[in-house]
Specification:
The complex is a heterodimer of chains A (260) and B (103). Chain A has 260 residues and is mainly α. Chain A is built from twelve helices and no strands. Chain A is extended. Chain A starts with a helix and ends with a helix. Chain B has 103 residues and is mainly alpha-helical. Classes of the chains: A mainly alpha (260), B mainly alpha (103). The interface between A and B is large, with 83 and 74 residues.
Amino acid sequence: MNAANIAEIIAFALSAFIAVAGALGMATTMSMFRSGIFLMASFMGVAGLFVLLSADLLGLLQIMMYIGGMLVMILFMVLFMQDPGGAMMADMPDMMTPVGKIFSLGLKQNDPTGTGPEEEGEGRDGDDDNMGDMDMSDMAMVTPAYRWAVWAALLTAGGLVALLLLRPAWPLASGALDPRSAERIGSLLMDKYMVGFEGAGFLILIGIVGAVFMARTGRHGAKADRDSRSAIEDTPPEIEADPLTPLAGDIGQTGPGGAA
Amino acid sequence: MTVPLTAYLVVGALLFAIGVYTVVAQRGAVMVLMGIEVILNAIGLNLIAFWRFVAPADYSAQIFTIFIITIGAVEMAVGLGIMMLLYRQRQSVQVDDYAELRG
């Protein structure tokens, strides 16, 4: 066994460990911010495996698409979640699974006074609830939904690995690879898989339009909703308890709003 | 080619199982989307491993992996758009609160 083989085995073990441990940490940690970071590690590991399988273009694409694109979206959406830093769960290690305890080590706990420093993004808690007045329904939001999910996952993994034992004898081919693989992929994409390429482009266009249309505010309600909204804007409510003294002249009649 | 095909397939199976666990067990919609991404990653890894070891002359597997990544990106964008909309209406991102979307 020469040095290149040993290097390949070490690289495979490192990439596989990063991919699997990152995914496991993503699934079990109590902090959703940490989940995003673990997911990034998992993507990096899979990209390393792609490079090891001499699919360099896909390894690069994996990093650029998943980490550059999707993970930014995910971390943005994590900010909407309740308790994104897992501070609510950090001081109840009894509720965690054993693996979750490992990946939740060192999480910043909820400050009992609720006035602690909150500079760290990871320890940021969504609301200032103390541990004392938190009821079981709050706890159920952050714990795994189904206890049998662990067994379902173990069964899936065991079944898939067991299928490998029953596998047919795949004819392994060890041909020399084209050094210009990106060129081959590009010409194949534009030649044989042209329809799929165009379809993917059309799907992206529809996805952009649909996502923008859904995330737009207040323009897609029912007609009655729109009418009531514009009716409210036509007659603005009186300002109650206005601290400012009223001006001498009626500015509102000559302002830009009044001229319209 | 020192590392056998089976090793890559085992890694893919583990990633797939972890993704299934995340989708089933987590309550947050973002976590469910993350689990789906891990599942897609496992599928891509399996495709590339089979391409490298069984049919290295045919580059179609890489095309299909590119398609998987593309569709995953679109799904993520649309899913997060739906989540933004639902969060704005109900102030909640827990999937159990969306049970009436079942139709």
